[in-house]
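Hi again,

Forgot to attach this to my earlier email, sorry! This is the prediction with zinc ion bound. I've pasted everything inline since the attachment limit keeps bouncing my files.
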Amino acid sequence: MAHQVNGVVAEAKGAPVKLVPILVPDPGPGEALVRVKACGVCHTDLHYREGAINDDFPFLLGHEASGIVESVGDGVTNVAPGDFVIIAWRAPCGTCRSCLRGAPWYCFASRNASQPMTLADGTPLSPALGIGAFAELTLVDAGQAVKVSPQASPEVAGLVGCGIMAGFGAATNTGNVGRGDSVAVFGCGGVGNAAIAGSRLAGAHTIIGVDLDDRKLAWAKEFGATHTINATSMDPVEEIRKLTGGNGVNVAIEAVGNPVTYEQAFYARDHAGTLVLVGVPSPDMKIELPLLEIFGRGGSLKSSWYGDCLPSRDFPMLIDLYLQGRLDLDRFVSETIGIGDVEEAFHKMERGEVLRSVVVF
Ligand SMILES: NC(=O)c1ccc[n+]([C@@H]2O[C@H](COP(=O)([O-])OP(=O)(O)OC[C@H]3O[C@@H](n4cnc5c(N)ncnc54)[C@H](O)[C@@H]3O)[C@@H](O)[C@H]2O)c1
Ligand SMILES: [Zn+2]
Ligand SMILES: [Zn+2]
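Structure tokens for the complex follow:
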């Protein structure tokens, strides 16, 4: 039986999203049906709506979600009805060449539900990042449902499912930030501020937040930035050098998805420093760098997909740090909104008014 609920759908490139009836099937083998409790509005949802990810419209948006398992299909053992879960967009398959080499965070065949959710007329929907959680119910592979302590609020838990994990992991997993390191984070939105919070927890000594918006920079300080730079009024590379004894940082994290900030992050590093790209560029973006600079500066240029996380390991860990009072995740929730308010939340995001708007059900 399929359940009819309302979902936030992007029908065409650049068109405002619409709340429309959708059909969500009962779980088949290996699948879980989740009653969504909260789902954050991430910049990646906006990238989907703008056609910057791919052209597989219509998209069912929403991918930063927590909820309660409603029912499970045959063969599911990791979760049961009633469990409080965070939905992950990575569920390692265990059998691809990367999983077999012991690096499941690069899994090349991450699992998703095999049955499609559809519009009321049967048109299949492309769920954002294999989730689609701006809806009262969503169908996922059971491996995407990660059980965490129900003491965490649904809003906070949902954000761990994407932005917080991506930023935190970009610093701690991909960038390997450690005690005494200097770090610069370009773009202090939800993802960038999570990278700042992760860097602080990892023991970084100097943490420099760079943004164009003073509001974002004020929040960056609350998350642990020791210094902030507004790149509209000064050259961030020069300022970062000044703040690091003329050397640059050990780890530069790009959390915008833009060639300008990528180049700044490249030059803001110390010799042998690490550059982590966590921002998602659009297909038309290009970068030109002198090959000699790439060679001569050494270090590494890395991309961070989902903070190189292993959801089953990292989601409960982040929730536990939060419950112990060591990681303030409540600050990421700027406002809670209704499911009909996602389009307006995109505009607030573009105007820089929020870190995260979170749809609650
Ligand atoms: N790699 C991943 O797994 C992953 C996961 C989630 C999100 N993302 C991506 O991370 C990026 C950030 O997401 P978000 O939700 O934090 O977005 P956001 O809109 O909340 O934050 C982006 C920030 O960048 C700032 N900014 C824009 N141009 C700038 C510039 N030239 N210099 C300095 N700052 C600038 C904005 O003011 C804003 O504060 C997006 O591209 C998103 O798609 C990647
Ligand atoms: Zn795999
Ligand atoms: Zn996201």
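The longest helix spans residues 154-174. The first strand starts at residue 2 and ends at 10.

That should be everything now.

G.
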